[in-house]
User: Fold this.
Amino acid sequence: MMRRLMVWLMMLLGMVALIAYLIRPYQGSILVVVGSYRLESSLVTVVMLWLLLWGVLLIVMHLLRKLLHLTGWWRRYRQSRAQVQLHAALLKVVEGDYLAAEKGFVRSAPLSEQPDLHYLLAAEAARQQGNWLQVKRYLSQISGTPDRPDWLALQISWARVQLATQPITLSMPSINALLRLAPQHPAVRQLASQLEQQAVVKSDLSCNAL
Assistant:
């Protein structure tokens, strides 16, 4: 790239020198007056400056195109790297190595155009290890809204956290809301069943205590 830039500069200087030589017999002057400012220069100097500015503009535009191309390449490289890391982490899930999968999902999240998906997967990998603190941390980094396709998955993940770490009375509203949202979803029905089982166990314990 630097070699090409030097070639362009040499061609520009050669063009300026050639045109200056050709118009040398036609000496003249240009006077520019703006208010109290007065600028006078020869025709040759003005033409040379104009050619230099025009050449510099072409070079700058060329460099900008190269920079934009480089930026696009870097973006494609990051996306490709994120995909490779995501696939490797998914394989770790299949293998049952949830700790390695969790690290892979977190490592690839900043490189991806969909980091929320990676954090959701990292939260699920942490859940499989029973690390609820990490699950909460990953889910907190997701700014889900009801119009997004990952909204249901996010709400199911939060409901799992509540059911595992909070009293039944606090997790019940979330699961009831999920039942209204997706009553036939297998994960939602499983959560409702777990909630019912925990309620039965709590009731039995209360009866035994009496």
User: Anything to note?
Assistant: The longest strand covers residues 29-34. Residues 177 and 183 are 9 Å apart (CA to CA). The chain has a mean pLDDT of 80.
